[in-house]
Amino acid sequence: MANYTFYPSNDGEINKNDATTGWANVHDAASGSECLDTAVDALTSDNTPGTRETAGSDSYDIFRAGFVFDSSSIVDAETVSTAVFSIYTTAKSDGDNDGNDYLAVVSFNPGNVADFDVADYNDFGATEWSNQQDITGITTSAYTDFTLNATGLAAVSKTGNTILGLREGHDILNDPCAVSTTTRVTTTFSATAGTTQDPKLVVTTTDFIPKVIII
Amino acid sequence: MTDYKLWYVKRDDGGKILEAAVRFYEGQMEDRLVRDANGESIQSIYVRTARLKKSELAHLGGKFKKELNGSDCKIYSEQDFGSINTDEELLLFLNDEIAKDLTRAVIPAQR
Fold first, then answer.
1. What is the C-alpha separation between B73 and A191, in angstroms, rounded?
2. Of A78, A61, A51, nearest to A166 (Cα)?
3. I need a labelling partner for A166 at 20 to 30 A (CA). Which of A56, A110, A198, B59 fits?
4. Is A42 on the interface with B (CB under 8 A)?
């Protein structure tokens, strides 16, 4: 058995905001308003993922985060048995604490893994690939762990990149957040100095055991 | 200036570190927008400007591996760092390694 801890080759956030046009226009937008990533923009920290409604004006913001891990060094003969994705959060806001205020891992399919774009806003999946982490219970200045489920495990690549997205529950479920609330965390991204707060993916594998045929 | 980041750390099932793949960079201090626990502000932060290639890491010697994106990654094994288990032990070893670069100042967090 082996245990690999991978760190991102790129990570970042894409957000969408649109004043007074309502939740659906922001949630279902084909493109975001802003994109910041580590590789190009030196993103060290941002208030993502999350959702926000501003002052009852029907103005919503949605923040989504993406992470690319080069997991090609996993020995091909090994079997991936578990994978845990972790982010280091430094702050949180839990304005709409209605049970849908959680974070979960989803798919993410950016056009260019080395340089995220606002067009990638629409490339996050809605199927949850991990356990849910209730924002209420998240401890700041610490790592929060997401254990990948069977669907998420199937996305761990032994030959290429493992690409993960992170969304807030109201965003995943298409449930508009409450008026005048902010529900999100502040995540440390891999452009930050040092290595102790980087996002990480811990993959555990089991050895390949060849069959022995006795003739 | 210079710093390192990790690509991966491989351990056995007892937690002993078998291999560490390390990315080395050069960079500089720049004023950038930062959104963190204290809000949004312009801060002077270390920004990586280039990934160091194998030819620029000759002072480290040893083994390299290519990442999917074509970048050179320095590979360390037990032969280099001995029998270690914790991230802290690995980072102490890597801080000694990056100090071998006599042409660049190491960022404070890795001195």
1. 17
2. A51
3. A56
4. yes
Predicted confidence (pLDDT) per residue in B54-91, tens digit:
999 999 998 999 999 999 999 999 999 999 999 999 99
Query: Which residues does B80 contact at the CB level (< 8 Å), separation at least 6?
Result: B62, B93
User: Are the C-beta atoms of B52 and B74 separated by less than 8 Å?
Assistant: no
How remote is the C-alpha of B95 from its chain's centroid?
A: 8
d(CA A193, CA B49): 13
The answer to whether the Cβ–Cβ distance between A73 and B69 falls below 8 Å is no
Rounded Cα gap, residues A15 and A34, in angstroms: 5
Q: Is B34 on the interface with A (CB under 8 A)?
A: yes
Nearest-neighbour CA in chain A from B10: distance (Å): 5
> How far, rounded to the nearest angstrom, does the alpha carbon of residue A152 sit from its chain's CA centroid?
12
- What SS3 state is found at A38? helix
Residue with tokens 């580590």: A38
Interface list for A 183-202 with B (CB within 8 A): 186, 190-191, 193-196, 198
Dist. CA B24–CA A214, nearest whole Å:
50
Supply the pTM of this predicted model.
Answer: 0.95
pLDDT of the residue at A213: 61
> CB–CB of A110/A161 below 8 Å?
no
Summarised one tens digit per residue, pLDDT across range A98-128 is: 999 999 999 999 999 999 999 999 999 999 9
- Residue showing tokens 């004023």: B31
Predicted complex: ipTM over 0.85: yes
Q: How far is CA A95 from the centre of its chain?
A: 20
Per-residue pLDDT, averaged over A72-86, amounts to 95
